[in-house]
Amino acid sequence: MSAGSRAVLEEIQLIRGPSGLGFNIVGGTDQQYVSHDSGIYVSSIKEGGAAAVDGRLQEGDRILEINGTKLENLLRKMAVDLFRNSTDPVVLKVQHQNHLNGPLGSRSDRDSEGTSLAVIVVPVLLAAVAIYAFVKLRQRAARF
Questions:
Q1: CA angle 9, 44, 55 (to 5 degrees)
Q2: Which stretch is the leader sequence (predicted)?
Q3: CA atoms of 20 and 48, how far apart (whole Å)
């Protein structure tokens, strides 16, 4: 994390719903989500799931512990097994990221998708219009 960013720690208690805890994770020693960091991160939150209903867990948050078990230096599969085998209530120790400087996939990234999409779509559309105009001009020139 950069010197100017602040991480906030929070303990979140969830009760498993019909679709489980309602979020997905990424990371681990075998599938690092953040370069040089084997932490376990929330990759997505399922709409209507336990985590979404609670509202405190956010995409990009790092999960430090589950029911008192630290999630350090684990393979992703081992972390998934810990989540699947946990008993209710599930107590998570979470490090909320400064989402302006947090891992990819954080909510702030999603908030800026409209701008990012415009940066990609506008040049592609302009290129398409330029190609179309070029083809039409060549067709006219060939007619004499």
A1: 50
A2: none
A3: 11
For the residues of 25-74, what is the DSSP string, one character each? EEESSSS-SBTTB--EEEEEE-TTSHHHHH----TTPEEEEETTEE--S-
Paired sense of beta strands 40-45 and 69-70, if any: unpaired
**Cα gap 105→94, rounded to integer Å:** 17
| Interval 38-57: pLDDT, tens | 999 999 999 999 999 999 99
Structure tokens at 142: 């060939």
User: Which pLDDT value is given to residue 114?
Assistant: 43
Per-residue model confidence as pLDDT tens digits over 7-50: 789 999 999 988 889 999 999 999 888 888 999 999 999 999 99
- Four-residue CA torsion sign, 17, 65, 9, 5: negative
Placement of tokens 């602040």 in the chain? 6
Number of alpha carbons in the 13 Å side-chain half-sphere of residue 63: 33
Q: What is the 3-state secondary structure (H, E, C) of 4-17?
A: CCCCEEEEEEECCE
> Which tokens in the block code for residue 43?
């990759």
